[in-house]
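I hope you will forgive my troubling you with a question about protein structure. Could you please explain, in whatever detail you think fit, how the structure tokens follow from the sequence? Thank you for your consideration; the sequence and its tokens are set out here.
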Amino acid sequence: MAAKTVYVCSNCGHEEPKWLGRCPDCGAWSTFVEEVRGERKAAGFAARARGGGSRASAGKTLRLDEVGGEAEGRMGTGIGELDRILGGGLVPGSLVLVGGEPGVGKSTLLLQVMGHLGDRCLMVSGEESPRQVAMSARRLGVAGSGFGVLAETDVDVIGATILRERPEVVVVDSIQTLYSPELAGAPGGVGQVRECAARLMRLAKAEGIAVVLVGHVTKEGAIAGPRVLEHMVDTVLQFEGDRFQAFRILRALKNRFGSTNEVGVFEMTSRGMEEVEDPSAFFLSRREAEVPPGVATVCLLEGTRPMLVEIESLVAPSPLAVPRRVARGVDGGRINMLCAVLSRRAGLALGSQDVYVNVTGGVRVEEPAADLGAALAIASALRDRPLERGTACFGEVGLTGDVRFVPGTERRLRELIKLGFDRIIMPEGSSGGPTDDGAESRRGVNVVEVRTLEEAVAVALL
């Protein structure tokens, strides 16, 4: 069997006979890696059918009404935030991929899950020895829970062990350390990651075992390995967080058994990952004095959970011909757009000013409802005039200067009122037809509805 060398794009899996700087399929740069493969002569299906060389028997089809539903139910992980993100717990036979930067808490969280599941769980460690896993388990207080540990990277041995032990949940840390002896590539290569994940996926579906894969991330923050890995699994969970901050955010990027809008907030402590039941109070700074200029409080909606964050801004005269626009925790293009709308529609002179925007706590904000808060923070910093104490806002800003409706108004209002905000700026018409209970809860709260950004700036900076 002669061997040949091919170059595979680690981003999309496209193959080329020679190395290229840019992938012609997905357009990514410097993603081609070398793989050595053995040539196998295989006849096509038509040739095998004519020659009678196909020994495969036809598969059995099933009617959907004959297929059982969720009779087995889900398995609770013992961590409420994780169960909510998964849609109620782990589904038997599912494949879950957990990604995140080194040290963000992936292994810690999964050790706590295995501590809850006990002897129903098997951990496959390709990065740590059993002694190291035991040390971490003792630190977290789960050493006596009874789950098994297998220090192995050969996917054939792992598969045989799973079939012998028959656990309900298997945690593999990490998928990039596994290899298949049938392939010539090194562990972590595109072919190895794809083959090992496919083998574990077939095993999970056939035996009804929930498999959790831990994945490394690239310097851009994407999960390392071929893009097809994310297509193969049922659920992709991404850990986010600043290593200089104690909190972590777990976000569902893909979920075949639940919503992808849910997020979980955790705090890294010496006892492991602890759930943050009230993230709004966690992210807000506790200022006894008046709020300084350039700070605005925004109510976001992550799935079904309202969450309050503070957006800070600093505006200063620029010594450069092209002023700087620096954003941290929010998309820089969005900030450029808001600066243009503020200049053109609200009459603020930002053409010669450097603008810096930061979301406190290291939170990454993606929801359009944060537009109004970012714009008011920039306006407050430019005019050096603070927003009134107890003021919060939410709303999307359009290119025409309109403040647009965002969903979840009642939930946002309840969260803001619960935390003591008595002046709320929001889009006009958002509270259309409030219930009696909603009207009762708003007594003593000044809800200001605005139509345009210029009107919002005038109301906020009285």
